[in-house]
Design a protein that fits this description.
It is a single chain. This protein has one domain: Decaprenyl diphosphate synthase-like (Undecaprenyl pyrophosphate synthetase), CATH 3.40.1180. α2 packs parallel to α3, α3 runs parallel beside α4 and α5 crosses α6. The chain is built from eight helices and six strands; from the N terminus they run βααβαβαβααββαα. It is globular, with a radius of gyration of 19 Å. Strands 3-4-2-1-5-6 form a six-stranded parallel sheet, with helices on both faces. The protein is an alpha/beta fold. The structure holds 3-methylbut-3-enyl trihydrogen diphosphate (2 copies) and magnesium ion. One 3-methylbut-3-enyl trihydrogen diphosphate binds next to β2.
Length: 243
């Protein structure tokens, strides 16, 4: 089960590869997205078991509107269906849900469902699950800057930090992308400044506990330097051991 000694507080995942998973099985792409929901369910449980406190997943990007209309509407229905089906059990497991992204692009019904799910899980404390839907890193930076301007506040790093859509959680420690692609695709551009990256060859529906553990184990072996030298980091670690 737990394989790493240093567990990341915040894990962010680009859940990629649903379409290819389905196509390989001669299934419609939406079948891959459905299986993706199951994979997310499994991943949430595994993260709780391993002591991860924040999980942020990319479910629908600002650019995914450019997909065929049938796939877009299928993804919207799937979100509504998953909300109805999964929220009670997620809540029972101590998951606090946040939906991150531009709600203005969503139908009233979907937006109301998201708000309801957030409200009904607001008291939970085991895991914060941020589902990024109609989200883009550039949108996030632009909306944060716009809100500072609207409030007549100067645009500073601290100000932007506080106005970003993920201001309620610390920055991600580990950024995983599944599906074998090596790109960010407009995910957490601002927040991943010092994240450790891990690219998994598994297609998202196949991303199981073992695949997650591979990422966690790799993370545990990294030295995070935040601009300092290795000697400085080791000195701090040694003084913490002595203390
Ligand atoms: C990720 O899987 C889910 C969404 C983008 C909604 P894809 O649908 O991008 O799957 P591939 O990359 O085509 O296999
Ligand atoms: C990123 O995957 C978005 C999500 C996983 C929701 P894409 O499949 O849309 O990314 P690109 O188009 O391959 O870069
Ligand atoms: Mg993809």
């Amino acid at each position: 089960m737990t394989v790493s000694t240093v567990v990341p507080h915040h894990v962010a995942i680009v859940m990629d590869g649903n379409g290819r998973w389905a196509t390989k099985r001669f299934l419609p792409r939406l079948a891959g997205h459905k299986q993706g929901v199951e994979s997310l369910r499994r991943c949430v449980r595994a993260c709780i078991q391993r002591g991860v406190r924040v999980l942020t997943v990319f479910a629908f990007s600002s650019e995914n509107w450019n997909r065929p209309a049938e796939e877009v509407s299928g993804l919207m229905s799937l979100l509504a269906m998953a909300l109805g089906r999964e929220v009670p059990s997620l809540s029972a497991e101590g998951v606090r849900l946040h939906f991150v992204g531009d709600r203005q692009g969503l139908s009233e019904k979907v937006a109301a469902g998201l708000a309801q799910a957030e409200q009904s899980t607001a008291h939970n404390e085991r895991l914060v699950l941020n589902v990024c839907f109609n989200y883009g890193g550039r949108w996030d930076i632009a909306q944060a800057a716009a809100s500072l301007v609207a409030r007549g506040e100067p645009i500073t790093e601290a100000g932007l930090n506080g106005a970003m859509a993920l201001a309620h959680v610390p920055d991600p420690d580990l950024f995983i992308r599944t599906g074998g692609e090596y790109r960010i695709s407009n995910f957490l551009l601002w927040q991943s400044a010092y994240a450790e990256f891990f690219f998994s060859p598994s297609l998202w529906p196949d991303f199981d506990e073992a695949a997650l553990d591979a990422a966690l184990q790799d993370y545990a072996s990294r030295e995070r330097r935040f601009g300092q030298t290795s000697a400085q980091i080791q000195q701090v670690a040694a003084s913490q051991v002595r203390a």
